[in-house]
């Protein structure tokens, strides 16, 4: 749920500097676990040891798949509870000059108007309790293994400057474990990227003594000397090449320690190629972006994992490789007989090819909301990426965004289009929205 020993967590001033005068005095974590669902509450107590009032920012890194649905803060005798509301954006005209003070006054259209609503009751209906039923389902199918399937594995290694130090050493050790664990009937390729990218071979090579010697020499001399973290071009180059033969399946194993500025475009590219190529991602170190790592793995029908310390490296590498080498299940059918007048939404035509559906994070309803929000956000990003000024596509983008906002605010789970707004619970009845 949260990271230990993370330098980017805690209380900071408005300039992003850690507040030494307001140290963490106490921390407690309470977890309720029901099968694959966990509800986790974290309580942190800080104390201002100085005599001055301080303006602070609270930073608490959270995995991208975790659904945050409640936040509250007690400052002195004041208690603030966060409510999820839609983000509003306001921009000034490009020719506006900042040569004088700008004052903006926002007023209610009719703040004194009283509104009374009522619903007619049904005298025939007795008292009762509202109950909402839900069901979690784990599918454990037995598929016939395709013994003729062969794998083409592409290792995509971050060699940007941010990888220098511990992370590039972890990347080298990971690559060594991958190479030593590859089956002899596979083909493989290594692509390093930074501001540019380069491939070890012209095309994926068969696993031979010669190709392995070349790869091990590359691994031995692996350094973080390729500039910035720009993975889009490297991925486009990999996808542009045809798979090397009939019956071969391409798998990308992506290793990085950082974040990128064009994440929606990268995720959209991975999703467009998921029918031919699966992608697995490993985040190295505490600075790896959870939204990037989990996002590309989800879009690529693969699995994501993180290596925070050296002890965890080997099991993560072996697990990811084992999953990547699994045979693909095709022509899968799910028959579900529903009796009576029950109605529901059809499952997606494309089923996520992962070993499990969702991650254990929160009570089922909010977990389900989080999964839907992530799917809709990915769909929104793909629509924006392919938008060609068509009115129909613009309408679809707006519709998907509206769906995300409605789901986010109703479940109180934040999304890219919503944010938490601090509210005094004692004045919640007076709280109005524009």
UniProtKB/TrEMBL annotation:
Residues 152-321 form the VWFA domain. Residues 8-157 form the VIT domain. Pfam families: VIT, VWA_3. Keywords: Coiled coil. InterPro entries: VIT, VWF_A, vWFA_dom_sf. SUPFAM superfamilies: vWA-like. It comes from the Eukaryota. Residues 373-403 form a coiled coil. The keyword Coiled coil applies. The keyword Coiled coil applies. This is VWFA domain-containing protein.
């Amino acid at each position: 749920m949260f990271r230990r020993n993370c330098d980017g967590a805690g209380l900071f001033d408005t300039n992003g500097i850690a507040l030494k005068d307001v140290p963490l005095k106490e921390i407690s974590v309470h977890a309720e676990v029901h099968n694959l669902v966990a509800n986790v509450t974290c309580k942190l107590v800080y104390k201002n040891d100085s005599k001055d009032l301080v303006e602070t920012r609270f930073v608490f890194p959270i995995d991208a798949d975790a659904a945050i649905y409640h936040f509250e803060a007690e400052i002195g005798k004041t208690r603030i509870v966060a409510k999820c509301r839609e983000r509003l954006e306001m921009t000034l005209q490009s020719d506006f000059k900042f040569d004088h003070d700008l004052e903006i006054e926002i007023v209610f259209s009719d703040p004194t108007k009283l509104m009374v609503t009522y619903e007619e009751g049904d005298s025939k209906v007795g008292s009762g309790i509202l109950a909402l039923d839900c069901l979690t389902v784990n599918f454990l199918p037995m598929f016939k293994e395709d013994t003729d399937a062969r794998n083409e594995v592409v290792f995509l290694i971050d060699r940007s400057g941010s990888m220098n130090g511990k992370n590039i050493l972890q990347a080298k050790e990971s690559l060594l474990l991958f190479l030593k664990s590859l089956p002899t009937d596979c083909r493989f390729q290594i692509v390093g990227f930074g501001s540019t990218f380069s491939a070890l071979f012209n095309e994926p090579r068969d696993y031979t003594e010669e190709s392995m010697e070349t790869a091990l020499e590359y691994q031995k001399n692996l350094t973080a000397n390729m500039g910035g973290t720009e993975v889009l071009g490297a991925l486009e180059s990999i996808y542009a090449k045809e798979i090397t033969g009939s019956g071969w399946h391409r798998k990308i194993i992506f290793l990085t320690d950082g974040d990128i500025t064009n994440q929606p475009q990268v995720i959209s590219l991975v999703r467009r190629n998921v029918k031919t190529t699966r992608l697995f991602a490993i985040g190295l170190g505490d600075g790896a972006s959870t939204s990037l790592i989990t996002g590309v793995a989800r879009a690529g029908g693969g699995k994501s994992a993180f290596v925070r310390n050296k002890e965890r490296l080997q099991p993560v590498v072996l697990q990811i490789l084992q999953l990547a080498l699994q045979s693909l299940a095709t022509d899968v059918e799910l028959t579900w007989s529903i009796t009576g007048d029950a109605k529901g939404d059809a499952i997606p035509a494309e089923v996520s090819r992962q070993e499990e559906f969702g991650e254990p994070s929160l009570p089922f309803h909010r977990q389900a909301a989080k999964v839907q929000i992530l799917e809709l956000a990915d769909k929104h990003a793909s629509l924006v990426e392919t938008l060609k000024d068509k009115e129909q596509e613009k309408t679809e983008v707006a519709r998907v965004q509206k769906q995300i906002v409605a789901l986010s605010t109703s479940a109180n789970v934040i999304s890219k289009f919503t944010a938490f707004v601090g509210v005094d619970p004692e004045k919640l009845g007076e709280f109005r929205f524009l």
